[in-house]
Amino acid sequence: MNDERIGRLITRIRAFEQGDARPVQDPEAAVEARDLLSQAAGAEGGLSFEVARLVAWLHWCRHRALPEGQDEGDLRTAMGLFTLIFQEDQSAVPRAVREYLTTDGYKIDAGRLAAFATGLLKRVASRDDPAALTHAIAALTAALSATSDEHCDRTGLLSDLGVALSFRFERTSAITDLDEAVAVTRDAVAATPDGHPERAKYLSNLGNHLRMQFEEGGAITDLDEAISVGQQAVTATPDGHLDRAAYLSSLSLALRARFDRTGKIGELNEAVRLGRMAVAELSDGHPDHGGCLSNLSVALLSRFDRLGAAADLDEAVSLARQAVAATPEGHRKYAIRWSYLAIALHGRFGRTNEIEDLEAAIAAGRQAVKATAINHPHRAGRLTNLAYMLAAWFERTDVGSLDEAVHLGREAAAITPAHHSDRAAVLANLGNTLSTLADRTGAVEDLNEATMVSREALASVPDGHPDRASMLCNLSAALATRFETLRVAGDLDEAIHGWVEASQSSVAPAMVRLSAAKSWAHAVVQRSGPAAAAEPYTEAVKLLPLLTWRGISHRDQQYLLQTQSVSLARDGAACAIAAGSPDLAATLLYAGCGVYWSQVLSTRIDLTDLHHVAPDLAEQLSNCRAALDRSTLDAIQKWRL
């Protein structure tokens, strides 16, 4: 295909040289040149000298052939490319260009290179254009080599180079690009004094690069520094500044990333707050509007996953839809915003069981995969998300086949590097899909593969990570399923051990911990009988108050209690009686009722309003509610089996 494009461009240039300008004036000529550059740049951003020279000459000919005023874009492109080519071979550029670029011998025009690169970066920021990105990096590098350390434009060139390198990292996952982006942006910050109008931009860019570095396996100190410099950028930028929203949104991203690592809800709440501020400062049509909408949507979805507030989930879906609507096809963030919409819709399906949400999630997931290049580093994550949704569709409707879901999951696992940050999630989803398949078919090979990939997913998550509890639950479920089918020695014991560890994780979501405790109790009943399960049921009941956290609505609290704790206290009491501990049975029943009545009292009475009209009654009810909360935990803490 490239050979055909090259041949057509050569034919057009030769026709111009022979006096026929029509072939180069044809708008299709510029399209062919652009497509050739994009194809030649490829996934790694490389570009051959010959292709660059051919495209430069095509645009030079168009500049000479088009009427004045219509040739400016072609002239800029030609001069930018010829400036780069000039460094390799001065004879390969037209005489007029050589004379322009040469002053007292060989000298690079750094200013023109910088202007050329700036134009390319603006294009790359909004469109996935590997050729433009290649030229931008080359032009910035060349301009820096011709600029002294004291030159006033040097810090801007360093910062722009950092941005360009981070863009290329997003396309290729070449960690050397990200490392260099951090290094050159540090230099830009270090060379820029406090109070300089560009310092906030450099700080925010550095924060973005450091956050990305952390997400690719870097140290938590990278993320801490990202948050620190992001805060400095926001502090240094006055209200109403055009770039303030972008700085707020970037800081929000970094805080959410630290929440993902530490599980500290305060940082996630701050991420949501800053994300709202960013969205509020931008109008529709602003280039950053779609990004700010998308970032806030992801933060809200994270908070829903942790706390279970339906309002967060609905708002996340709405914002994700708006972000997609604000992002044209071909934009470099087009695919990822479709992916985020798919995840939000799938999350709402899990809450509401509305099939329309799952249908829309699958459609959005397919769009995300379609818009992602075969060699894109994030393709695996989008494939695995789609696979998980297809498996959910099959479980919900019993229509279609799990074959596509398994195929996509295996493809995602095959293309995800061993140390990639997404590998644990990719393997976990594949394990879940294989477990679903095994439930339907009973195939031993599916059971074994589900267990193997779930174990590998767990090994990819460090101790203390909030996601470790979910990975433990996935592996335990696979082991329990294999035990039921094959009676493999030790599978059930290992499954129970995993559920115990997951239930005791202080950084995992409450729903994950409670689910783990319930699975632990059920497995103990299966292995040793009801009397042995009093302890895990006691631990499960201890977790119930976490579901009624007053930071979520009463309706959400009620939903969580109804879906997560139905019959829990009753079943625990039955096991306590079987173990010969009637007092513990009574305590568990009392504890379960205490959580429920505490929630009911909170639901029925707004104590703030009541205090104004009946302060004594409000005080009594407040004390009652506090006593119920306290006694729920105090009572069961007394028991140790």
Shape: elongated
Please state the structural category: mainly alpha
Q: Helical element count?
A: 31
The CA-CA distance between the termini, in Å, is 73 Å
Determine Rg (CA atoms, Å): 30 Å
Low-confidence stretches: 42-46, 629-633, 635-641
User: What proportion of the residues is helical, as a percent range?
Assistant: over 70%
Quaternary structure: single chain
Mean pLDDT: 85
Share of β-strand residues = under 5%
Notes on the structure:
It is a single chain. With 641 residues, this protein is mainly α. The protein has helices at residues 2-17, 22-25, 27-41, 49-65, 72-88, 95-101, 110-126, 130-145, 154-172, 175-190, 199-215, 220-235, 244-262, 265-280, 289-307, 310-325, 334-352, 355-370, 379-397, 403-415, 423-441, 444-459, 468-486, 491-503, 510-528, 534-543, 554-564, 568-578, 582-604, 607-613, 615-637. The radius of gyration is 30 Å and the shape is elongated.
Quickly describe the structure.
The protein has 641 residues and is an all-alpha fold. It is 76% helix and 0% strand.
